[in-house]
Amino acid sequence: MMGLPKIALGAWAWGNDGTFGGNLTAETLRPVFDAGMAHGLNLWDTAYAYGMGASEKVLAGFLKGLPRESYLVSDKFTSQCAGSGSGAMADMIEMQLKLMSLDRFDIYWIHNVWNAPHWTEELARYYEGKENVPMLGVSNHNLAEIRQADEILKAHGLRLSAVQNHYSLLNRSSEDSGILGYCKDNDIVFFSYMVLEQGALSGKYDTRHPMPEGSDRAAAYNPMLDKLEVLNAAMKKLADKYHAAIAQIPVAWAIAKGTLPIIGVTKESHVADAAKAAGITLTAEETSELEGIADSLELNVIRFWEKEMK
């Protein structure tokens, strides 16, 4: 498999699940995809759960006709979307591959911890002895659950290669709990998602310019915009220093921490920001200063579908 880019592009919102409000179409998303590929950001993160196949279908349409070696696809097994029979794992994987007209995935994840040991065992049985095994990962797992998944895979001659958790300046529980350290020690790539807190750390929103009402993220972040202005002001100083946009600083921070950020993209500007962020190298002093300010705000941004990592 080709090497991973510094940033993955997320197609979460492409499923039109209501998180961002409004509707997105393949026509409006096509330039976003093209921009990502043009910038060399060719790792695309999706899941069947993102609109019950809607995100996968849109992405598949864009990938059609491209050389298979020119892109990487990260997809997920979401137990809540699968059947309960003995062949549920195989059925899900093969349904997703067919849906996307692919012969393989490059990264495949257990999406959440619901009955995860059982499904990790099923995943291991499915890929044991096969050629073209993708990077196998777990998402939204705490350290004990990550260790358990690694043990299950190793018993089948496989290994845990990736962990994906919510990780941002406002939520460093995967660091505090030792997950980042475990990943580093065991050659596991840590993928950080929600680095921008769904736009709350992009510099676009403040008390005078709140997120549009009617979306889940507006309900979550609008009440804390006054505190976020303090962090955004600090990020603006760094953005000015690096001739960058504020939205590029949290991404550069996540890269500086040794993680691979997954950036949700719905506009070409999101892709351009991601590409520029990949070229910014923050100093240890700058990352520490940002963390100190973020910690002082004492904000809880753990969302309804996840847990704090302990």
Explain what you see.
The protein has 310 residues and is α/β, with parallel strands linked by helices. The protein has a single domain, classed as TIM Barrel (Alpha-Beta Barrel), CATH 3.20.20.100. The protein has helices at 26-38, 54-63, 88-100, 116-127, 143-154, 173-176, 179-185, 216-221, 225-241, 248-256, 268-277, 284-297, and strands at residues 8-10, 43-45, 72-77, 107-110, 135-139, 160-166, 189-193, 260-264. Strands 1-2-3-4-5-6-7-8 form an eight-stranded parallel β-barrel, surrounded by six helices. β5, α5 (143-154) and β6 (160-166) form a beta-alpha-beta unit. α1 (26-38) packs across α2, α1 (26-38) runs parallel beside α11 (268-277) and α10 (248-256) packs across α11 (268-277). The chain is globular and about 55 Å long. The protein starts with 7 loop residues before the first strand and ends in a 13-residue tail after the last helix. 45% of the residues are buried. The mean pLDDT is 94.
Number of domains: 1
Count of individual beta strands: 8
Average of the residue pLDDT scores: 94
The CATH topology is TIM Barrel
Keyword list:
12 helices; alpha/beta; globular; 310 residues; TIM Barrel
In short:
The protein has 310 residues and is α/β, with parallel strands linked by helices.
Write the topology of this structure:
Layout: E1 8-10, H1 26-38, E2 43-45, H2 54-63, E3 72-77, H3 88-100, E4 107-110, H4 116-127, E5 135-139, H5 143-154, E6 160-166, H6 173-176, H7 179-185, E7 189-193, H8 216-221, H9 225-241, H10 248-256, E8 260-264, H11 268-277, H12 284-297
Helix pairs in contact: 1-2, 1-11, 4-5, 9-12, 10-11
